[in-house]
Automatic annotation (TrEMBL):
The keyword Transmembrane helix applies. Required for efficient N-glycosylation. Necessary for maintaining optimal levels of dolichol-linked oligosaccharides. Hydrolyzes dolichyl pyrophosphate at a very high rate and dolichyl monophosphate at a much lower rate. Does not act on phosphatidate. It is found in: Endoplasmic reticulum membrane; Membrane. Its main location: endoplasmic reticulum. This is Dolichyldiphosphatase. The keyword Membrane applies. SUPFAM superfamilies: Acid phosphatase/Vanadium-dependent haloperoxidase (SSF48317). Pfam families: PAP2. It comes from the Eukaryota. GO terms for molecular function: dolichyldiphosphatase activity. InterPro entries: Dolichyldiphosphatase_PAP2, PAP2/HPO, PAP2/HPO_sf. GO terms for biological process: lipid biosynthetic process; protein N-linked glycosylation.
Amino acid sequence: MATLAFDPTNQLRQAVADSAARHHCLPFGSHHESALPYSSTPDKGIGSSHPQSLGPERYGACICGFYSPGPTTMLDDTAPLASLSVTHVYYDPDDQVSLLCAYLALLPQALCIVYTTLILSTREIEIVLMFAGQLGCEALNFLLKRLIKEERPRRIHGKGYGMPSSHAQFVAFWSVSVVLFLLVRHRPHPRASPGPDSKGGPLRNRPWSVLERVSFSLLAAAVAAATAWSRIYLNYHTPRQVVAGSMAGVVVALAWFAATSVARQTGLLAWGLDLPIARLLRLRDLIVSEDVCQAGWEKWERRNKAKTG
């Protein structure tokens, strides 16, 4: 007669395995840990961010039904997460130049905030047009990258294609637009202000001198050049990609300045400012021929003079 052998150890091992499978438990030190999309660091307690290894205590509680690891530890329910890296920049913490380059990498975001603030506070159509050209330049960069499809440097930190550099193209457009506005388009005329100066006469609205305009233009160009160079230093782009982005930004800025000049000369801009939507938004065109800051101050002086008079 055949005798059936009963092995309580094997029976217990099988029961534990079945219970673990039902509760999605993963034994401490299991060879399946490497299959999970998390770090291989063992579990360190209730608040641990490494859920793939439960540890002996939790594993025992899990197979008894007293603890559930939750969806983050289930092999079939894990999903990769993405980060919103608008202001995320990699740099060497031991290198002060690298830190400065990381701050320069945030210049495009800062300039977008400046554009928006100036538009909302002044309603100047010149600033609206400059920002529209800036966004158009960004859209062109988006298309060029997907047409050229050139990868970033091999020691890559950024994601996506690298040709041309969007940072270099952005700051090149901005700096050239500022230079063209200050040296070509902005022509305010000095006039008397109702407030008295130190000698008792009327104050004069003095526009920026040529030296002041050239100095600010050189500063804008230097900041743009430093920002473009920082992309190479941080290893986000090759020199070729940065040069291509800078050239694209300069070309787009020149073309946009020419287009807006034609719109002014042909009366197209004046027609647009007379549209109901433009009037509703209180859009105006004063900054080309007037110092807006000085004009606001003169209005304040007239109001104070009327109160005291």
